[in-house]
Amino acid sequence: MSEHIIEVKGLSKRHGEVKAVAGADFTVSRGRITVFLGENGAGKTTALKCILGFLRPDAGRVVIRADRLGYVPEHPVQFPWLTGRDILSLTGRVYGLREDALPALVAAAAAKLGFDDTLLTRRAQTYSHGNQKKFSYLQNLIFSPDLLIVDEPFSALDPVSIKRVRELFLEIKEQGRTVFLSSHLLSEAEKIADDAIIIKRGRISFQAALGELKKNQVFPDPSLEALFLHFAS
Amino acid sequence: MSSRNDFKITVLLTRKKLMSAKSLYGLAAFFAAVPAYAWLRDSPAAALSFFLFLFPYVFLVLTQDMVRSEVDSGGLENVAFLRQDFRRYLLEKNAVIALFGGLVSLALFGILVTASCGSRSFSLLDFAQFGAGLFAGLYYTALAGFLSYLLKAGSNVLVIFLGQAALAVSFLLSAGSETGFLRNLSEGAFPDFPSLLKFSGLVALLPNTVVSRKFLPWTFEVAGLSLFFFWLQYRQAARLELKKQ
Fold it and tell me: Are B184 and B195 in contact (CB under 8 A)?
């Protein structure tokens, strides 16, 4: 089994005249937490959407070596005609979960996220922003993805929920699974990240294991903020 | 994950969406009420004629808001549709809508046939007309489904209705003419190429025409056009990207 759960080679994507991603090359290691950083408009979300298959790359190759791929968008949107329970039942079907096992999985995930599961009978679109985000995590947790891709993991969440999500990422890593997240909240990302990838104007300007950087003292200040200021801006 | 399971998921999602659309209940009542009224005021034969002309519209109204709004809403950017699966889902919706439309139409046709068995006998032609109507319904699904990649909400259906309304107005305006297309139409004969072409255009805009006994062979045109618009949908889906609007 390859140590790289994601391999991106020569990825390019234009939005009209704008070259959002311009020949990006990077890898994401299995069983680690990797943060994907970049300024606004650097190409993070476009690269993520190409990896997820929502956008078609103009050039390049994306290889994902995960049986179960999870995704939490920055602003989750649910179909207005579905209740939370409908969506979880649908997700269970997509990932081949047994219907009788679903309630226990949902209850365990809801407790972990501090999500009020009485909301599940309501249409998911009516939830508050924070609850929609938690619900999106819940939808992913029930099928235990090998690789969880998260765009802005802490947006719309209160401090308690941010802590819970952070602990959740660490738990996923302990289980040998992988988290790949794109975030602007460097202070939170710093607490959990093993590896960092920085994108600047559509190209990868930095990729390294943070532990190695600290050990080898490659940079005088190997904090994410210092790396970001140096390689992203 | 089997393709059978995938299809079941598309059925589930589409059924939930259709059941949540309150306007469809009113339209369903309309489609049942018109033949019933014709039966009471006239005869079972009149009821059947009304039904055969109207039922392809069941397919059309089911396709309202089929693609664009779902894409623009961002609802497809979900774990349930990861790795290109949203394209399969959007294409499979055609089959699900055709299935639902077919079942509703078959049920209504069955009720009409059973209820009028005592008062009129049914020939093979009645069933051929019903079959032609199913093809017209399939064509509506293909055409409105394709338009739904380009137009938001129910505009895909509205555009078709507007085209048909314009057609009706043009017929009204030319009704005084002794010669010409309307006479060809009433005779079911098109002596020259321009009139043949005109009728072909009429069938493309109002496919319900093919349920008329004298126009049954034109079902082949409707079937051909259905394939063409399904192919166009396939092309659109293959190029589709999820960008929130």
Answer: yes
Q: 10 Å Cβ neighbour count for B66?
A: 25
Provide the CB-side half-sphere exposure for A21 (13 A, CA): 29
B153 shares contact with chain A (CB less than 8 Å): no
The ipTM value here is 0.84
CA distance A216 to chain B (A): 38
Report if residue B222 sits inside a domain.
yes
**pLDDT tens digits, A9-27:** 999 999 888 899 999 999 9
Dihedral (Cα; A76, A82, A83, A84), 10-degree rounding = -40
Q: Write out the residue range of the structural domain in which residue B230 sits.
A: 3-239
| Burial (0-12, 13-18, 19+ Cβ within 10 Å), A202 | buried
Q: Look at residue A176 and tell me whether its pLDDT is greater than 70.
A: yes
In single-letter form, the type of residue at position B215 comes to: F
Residue B193 counted as domain residue: yes
Name the pTM for this structure.
0.87
With an 8 Å Cβ cutoff, are A86 and B74 in contact? Answer: no
pLDDT of residue B23: 81
B244 occurs within a structural domain: no
Does residue B245 form part of some domain? no
Which chain A residues are within 8 Å of B84, Cβ to Cβ?
53
Which stretches within chain B are classed as H helix? 3-20, 22-41, 44-54, 56-62, 68-73, 85-115, 124-147, 155-173, 181-187, 193-205, 219-239
Number of domains in chain B: 1
